[in-house]
Amino acid sequence: MVLSLFIYVSSANYIDLRKRFPNYQYVLEQLDINPNYINDPYFRNFIIKNEARYRRFYTNSLKRGRDLVPIFKNLLTSGGLSHLFIYMSMTESGFKRGAVSNKKAAGLWQFMAGTARRFNLVVNRKQDQRFDPIASTKAAMSYIQTLYRMFGKWYLVMMAYNAGEGRIQRAIKRAGSDSFEVLMDERRRLIPKETRNYLRKIIFLSMIGERINQSPLPKYRRIKEEILPKSEISVNIYGGITLKRLSAILKLPVSKILKLNPHLRGSTIGENIGMTQITIPIKNYKYYKKNYTPPTLQQIFRQKNYSRLIAHIIKPKDTLATIARKYHTTPLDIILVNKLANNKLKPNTALMVPVTEELYDKMYQY
After folding, report:
1. Per the count of CB atoms within 10 A, which of 19, 103, 195, 222 is most buried?
2. How confident is the model at residue 365 (pLDDT cuts 50, 70, 90)?
3. Closest CA to 93 of 109, 75, 112
C-alpha cells in the first residue's frame, strides 16, 4: 500500500522537461553540460518545487532590467561569451542595480570589493563601479574569461564564480574528476548546496528565457511586450559636473538620478572619472539633447593653462587615470582633446595629452 502510494505521487508530479522546454539541449550544450541532465531527478524536483517562484522572479527581474538585457547581450557576444551569462547576472542580483548582499557583494554581478578591484573597478568613498552596468559587466566578462582559462568548462566557471576558485579546485581534486554529474552529486556533496542550486537556477532561468524569446506563440509574445517596454536610456556625461547642475539640465530630481545610477557617489561627477554613462528616463532624453553641452577644448585649455600637446604611445596596462597622473592632467581633459567616445584605450596607438608650458619644458630640457 505504501509502495503504490509512492508510485502514484511520483507519477502525478512527473513532468517532461524536454517537451516543456524544447530548447533544453541548446541551453545545456552552451554551458558544456550533457543534454541528458534534463532527465536528472534532482533537477526535475528542483523545478517542481520552485517553478512558480522562479517564473515570477524571471518576470520581475526583466521588468527591472529591460534596458540592460540588450546591452549585456551585445557586450557578452562581442567578447566571445554566450549570451546565456545574462541569466547568471539575473541569478546574482535579479537585475537590481543597487543590490548588496549580506556578505557585502554589490551590483548587478555581485562583486566583492577585492575582486572588483582585481578586475580594475573603482571602489572607494567617491565612486563604486560595481553599480555601473557597463563597467561591471566588462569586469565580469574579464573574470569569466579568467575562470575559463583556469577550468576550461563553462559550468565550472559558474561554480567558481559562486563558490570561489579554490573551493572548486579542491572539489575536483577530491572527486578525481571535473564531471558536472560528479560535482553535482547530492550524496557526495563535493560542492556547497548553495552552488548546486545556483547552477540549477541559472539553467532553469535560461530555459525559461530562451523559450519565451524564441517562441512565436501569442502568450509568450504578450509576456515579451509586457516586460520589455523601452522606458530608459543610457547617455554619456563628462566629469566635472555637480548632480545639482545635472538635475537642472535633465529636469530630473537628484534622488531619481541616484536611484537609477547607484554607481554615482557624492554630489559631483568628478573630473577624475573622465566620462561615464548614466541611465535616465527616456522622457527626459529631450532635455539631455537640448540642454547638455560637454565642456569644450577651448574652455579646458583656458582654465588649466594648457599650451602644448604631447603624443603618448599607449601601453597595454595604461589607463586614462595612469596617463593623466603622469602628465599632471585629468582623464576628462584627455577625452576631450582626443574626442574619445568612451574610456577604452587601444595599445600601441598615440594619444594626445594636454600639458602646461612648464611641464613641457621640464620634459624636454636638453
Report:
1. 195
2. low
3. 109
pLDDT at 215: 59
Q: What is the 3-state secondary structure (H, E, C) of 336-350?
A: HHHCCCCCCCCCCCE
Q: Which domain holds residue 283?
A: 232-291
Three cell numbers at 154? 563553462
Structural domain includes residue 2: no
- The residue count for the chain: 366
Q: Which amino acid is at 262?
A: P
Are 334 and 274 within 8 A, CB to CB?
yes
Cα torsion at 184, 185, 186, 190 (round to 10°)? -70
Q: Which residues contact 38 (CB under 8 A, 6 or more apart)?
A: 17, 18, 21, 24, 25, 28
| Range of lowest pLDDT (94-103, 175-184, 328-337) | 328-337
The answer to whether residues 71 and 220 belong to one domain is: yes
pLDDT of residue 260: 80
Average pLDDT of span 36-48: 93
Same domain, 87 and 41: yes
Q: Would you say residue 1 lies in a domain?
A: no
Separation of alpha carbons 200 and 1, rounded Å = 34
What are the CB-based long-range contacts (under 8 Å, 24+) for 264-269? 264/127, 265/124, 265/125, 265/126, 265/127, 265/128, 266/125, 266/126, 267/242, 267/243, 268/240, 268/241, 268/242, 268/243, 269/237, 269/238, 269/239, 269/240, 269/241, 269/242, 269/243
Which phi and psi (to 5°) does residue 211 adopt? Answer: -65, -45
Is residue 296 in a domain? Answer: no
- In this predicted structure, the answer to whether residue 326 has a pLDDT above a threshold of 80 is yes
pLDDT digits (tens, 9 = 90+) for 234-254: 788 887 889 999 999 999 999
Mean pLDDT value across the chain: 84
